[in-house]
Amino acid sequence: MLDADIWFPELKECGNVIARVITDGPDADFEKFRWALLAALAEAQTSVKIVTPYFLPDTALVTGLNLAALRGVRVDILLPVKNNLPFVHWASRAMWWQVLERGCHLWLTPPPFDHSKLMIVDGHWVLLGSANWDARSLRLNFELNLESYGHSFAGEMEAVIQRKLRGAHEVTLAEAHARSLPAKLRDATARLFSPYL
Description:
The protein is an alpha+beta fold.
């Protein structure tokens, strides 16, 4: 175990952003990332912006997103139009209607494939790091994320999202429902395996 002083030197204050590391894993830090997401969604007042390559949130997170949208928060979710893991993309598509029907906005960003993970709440709180919105990140993987507070850094990250939205396609609920029957069956089958993807 790494517990000697050499591994944890005293750190000097640096920069002008208040930030905190959020570790997460299937051990002592279990579900810390999930609780951070739920808390941020519960506190959102005006906007939530999410960028993730893998969007397979559990029921609690879907509810958190929907509750935010229902109380008037603008919720934008940015996903790559073409995923590097087709089964994950299909499983994700099978549940898009769950957030679209409550007023969340879902965008498909053009290639190249974007592996970024970013969340901004109210133009002030930023979360970025290694974790995705999927079961592996929420329950199985060891993840390291950083939350920060401040309009300046959040503004820089907002600019990144605005660049990603250029050329992005907004998915409508009608479009999600209009998939062919074979596509719906394929997506629903993939969704059954989402805890393992």
